[in-house]
Amino acid sequence: MSLIAYEHGNRNSNKIALTFDDGPNSFWTKKILDVLDKYNVKASFFVLGKWAEKYPEILKETFNRGHLIGNRTYSHPKEGIGDFEKAEEIIFNIIGEHTTFIRAPHFNINLCLKYAPAINGEVKIIGSDVIPLDWKNTSDGIKQIINQKTCNGSIILLHDGSQKEEEVKSRPAEMFKALPEILKSLKNKFKFVRLDELEFE
C-alpha cells in the first residue's frame, strides 16, 4: 500500500507547527512546557512509549496543558515493523485519547505500514521540512536554520529527549537555550498551531 508522510502544511497559510520528539523525561519536558506557556504556544509532542510508561505524570501534564500527543513508537526501532501498537496502548491509558499523528524513527515510512491500516486510515504520518539538527548543533546554529528555513506551513522538528537514556540530559540542551528566541522571532511572522490545527494540502 502507499502511505503519505506530510512534511509541511498549506503553503498559503501562515500557520506553522512546532514538534518535539523522544520524550517525555523528568529533566527537560516540564522546562519546555513552561517556556511554551510563557509565550502562549501550543506544540505537538511525539512521545516514546517506553518513556511515557516511565513518566506518565509528565505525559499527562503535557496533555493537560493543551499540547497534542503523537505516537513515536515504543522503543525507537531502526528496522522492521514499528511498535506503534504498544506505545498507543500506553498513551491511551494515560491520557484517555488515541493519537492520530505518528512519526517513525529515522522517518522510515516502512515502520508505519502495519500500523496505519489498523486504525482505519485516520492516522497522519508526519515528517518535517525544518530540521535544525538540534541534537548536535549549537544554539546559534539551531536558530539560524530555523529562521532561514521556516515558511508558511512549516513543521519544525526539535527534541525534548532521546531514545538513549544516557543522552537525555545532554541532547536538548542547546535547543532549550535557543527556544525563547526562536519563539519570539517566529511569532512576529507566523501563527503556532498544533498539528491537528495545521492545514494539510
From the structure above, extract its key features.
globular; 7 helices; five-stranded parallel beta sheet; 201 residues; three-stranded parallel beta sheet; alpha/beta
Explain what the structure shows.
This protein has 201 residues and is of the alpha/beta class. The protein has one domain: TIM Barrel (Alpha-Beta Barrel). It is built from seven helices and eight strands, in the order ββαβααβαβαβαβαβ. The strands form two sheets. Strands 2, 3, 4, 7 and 8 form a five-stranded parallel beta sheet that branches. A three-stranded parallel beta sheet has the order 1-6-5, with no helix packed on it. α6 runs parallel beside α7. The protein is globular and about 40 Å long. The two termini are 20 Å apart.
